[in-house]
Amino acid sequence: MVECFFVAGAHLILTYNRNKPSLDFLNRCRALGAAAAKPIHCNVSDLDSCQNLIKQLDSTVGKIDILINNAGVDSIGPMHVKDPAAIIKDLAINLHGPLFLMRLVMPDFIQAGRGTIINVASRGGTVDLPFNTTYSTSKAALIRLTSSWQAELQLGGHDGIQLYAIHPGAVPSQMTSAVHPEEIMGEYSHLVKGMAQVLENFKDSPYLSGMVSVALATGIAKDCLNGKYFDVQQDLGDVIAQASALRDNSDLYKMQVAFLGDLPNNGGTENIAPEKAFNFPGY
Questions:
Q1: Its family (predicted)?
Q2: Considering the entire predicted model, what is its pTM?
């Protein structure tokens, strides 16, 4: 993703926690056309670290135009035996970090009347992922954070700010390629082989999500995908060409709940007769 934005001529700030980008990588990025490449340490799970990052940016390069929340971790295993502290740590990286940074840059976006945020979520946030529940939960929350905050911005008249949540594709990486040892799964160790077989299907290029993110940042899909969840495995141009279908059905590309009997998902606030006074029988 970084290289794709460099090819587009972006001036990038690269945040890292443990592994600082190598000089060779930075030189490659500059060779690709990067206007600038500046690495800054930031532990996104820590609010103070995020605040320090924004202060450094304000004092060195100024206000940012685009925020990409790409940090993420997963931890396989049965929820009932996981260390609660580890669960909190995972949630802090996958959800709190994006939330912190969105909150810190949003006042400047509102003042400028423009800005783009791309949250790298996951298809795992839209489906149940047994034995990867913390990851699934955090990504689902990130998708909802994106859509709900976008709705808030639009109601406030801030139409120049665009938020997106994307599934980056099935990309082989350090997080997805390792076969999880039987000891982590405990009594469910017989499922490890099946999980490994699923990971063998991760064959997408990271450049796919990178180029889609560059395209989204230009605003090309703003009128139809603003605040939405987009799977980069789908053809973006084809979706944009069908923008009218998205405008006609606001439930497309967002998480939703449906009930039997056409019950509206509105908290019981519409088309329902007032409840009669209830008394327990015999009292």
A1: Belongs to the short-chain dehydrogenases/reductases (SDR) family.
A2: 0.88
Distance CA 124, CA 127 (A): 5
> For residue 134, which of 145, 149, 122 has the smallest C-alpha distance?
122
- Is 100 in contact with 47 (CB distance < 8 Å)? yes
Is the separation of the CB atoms in 236 and 210 below 8 Å? no
- Give residue 227's identity as a one-letter amino acid code: G
What distances in angstroms separate CA 101 from CA 46, 113, 170, one per listed residue? 10, 18, 26
**Residue of higher predicted confidence among 191 and 231:** 231
Active-site amino acid positions: 135
For 144-183, b/e burial (b = at least 16 CB within 10 A) is bbbbebbeebeeeebeebbbbbbbbbebeeeeeeeebeee
Q: What CATH number labels 64-255?
A: 3.40.50.720
- Indicate the length of the chain as a whole number: 283
Q: Which tens digits make up the pLDDT trace of 67-126?
A: 999 988 988 889 999 999 999 999 999 999 999 999 999 999 999 999 999 999 999 899
- Mean per-residue pLDDT of the chain: 88
Q: Residue 252: its pLDDT value, please?
A: 96
